[in-house]
Amino acid sequence: MSNAIEIRELTKTYGTRRGLTGLTLDVRSGEVFGYLGPNGAGKSTTIRLLLDLIRPTAGTASVLGLDPRENGVAMRRRIGYLAGDFVVDGRQKVRDCLRFLADLRGGVPQPRIDELTERLGLDPTTTIKSLSKGNRQKVGLVQAFMHTPELLILDEPTSGLDPLVQQTFLDLVTEAADNGQTVFMSSHIMDEVEAVADRVGILRDGALVALDTVADLRAAAIRHIEIGFADPVAIEEFRAVPGLIDPRLDETGSVLRAGLSGSPDAVVKAAARHTVLTLTITEPHLDEIFHSHYAAARQPAA
């Protein structure tokens, strides 16, 4: 499978402030890639470097097989971009703004624009300056999707959107992927990324700290296990069981709760020495995995 984006040791510093540090990353053609991190992690810096809106301190990037610096105009023709701070002329009506942007693209069929505005619940007759933040974001989404680009680069795309419109956005992303388009989507909202992403990268302080499918990140993460026994048990029986993390009993002594890493086989065998009434293993959500990487960073060195 070819790559829509290839990044090698990309670094950006702002004087003494670090924006991005030695980022190496491939985004495959046709995949939905979720780029996760809190505000200030370096997500927008990455996107601006890819689009040649800013220049790197070091490293290289290739987008759709092109050098952003040498072939920026040709590259951007093939991209749909939504900035995290989408701004257009507030004096225009929505329909005039979208028509103007469509003409800059070389023309977009009006039925396509109408379809997107209707699906997103956007009134084309209103002026931009009268729109709420959420409705301005809808304008940004329409202009990004309307020309069916090979690559969609979306920076915090659901900012300000209500839950129903967020779902419509996720539907649009799924449809784009089904159409063979690549989607690179930065976000700090885990649920939306988990719903559509093929792979995710987690950025922390300008560096990539995790890269995998959601399923594999979950498999490697700590799960939660709870075992209910018919009678009280001794906590000492479980403290040395492989895979159990911080085992503890409730006040009755008959319910064991712990973290679980890897296979539950040893835990099940240890529990089988008693009468087991219930056994529940809970898979972590993506937001738990995300926060675990940040919690690890805050741990003091040994």
UniProtKB/TrEMBL annotation:
<dbReference type="InterPro" id="IPR027417">
    <property type="entry name" value="P-loop_NTPase"/>
</dbReference>
<dbReference type="InterPro" id="IPR003593">
    <property type="entry name" value="AAA+_ATPase"/>
</dbReference>
<keyword id="KW-0046">Antibiotic resistance</keyword>
<keyword id="KW-0813">Transport</keyword>
<dbReference type="InterPro" id="IPR017871">
    <property type="entry name" value="ABC_transporter-like_CS"/>
</dbReference>
<dbReference type="InterPro" id="IPR050763">
    <property type="entry name" value="ABC_transporter_ATP-binding"/>
</dbReference>
<feature type="domain" description="ABC transporter">
    <location>
        <begin position="5"/>
        <end position="230"/>
    </location>
</feature>
<keyword id="KW-0067">ATP-binding</keyword>
<dbReference type="InterPro" id="IPR003439">
    <property type="entry name" value="ABC_transporter-like_ATP-bd"/>
</dbReference>
<dbReference type="Pfam" id="PF00005">
    <property type="entry name" value="ABC_tran"/>
</dbReference>
<comment type="similarity">
    <text>Belongs to the ABC transporter superfamily.</text>
</comment>
<protein>
    <submittedName>
        <fullName>ABC transporter</fullName>
    </submittedName>
</protein>
<keyword id="KW-0547">Nucleotide-binding</keyword>
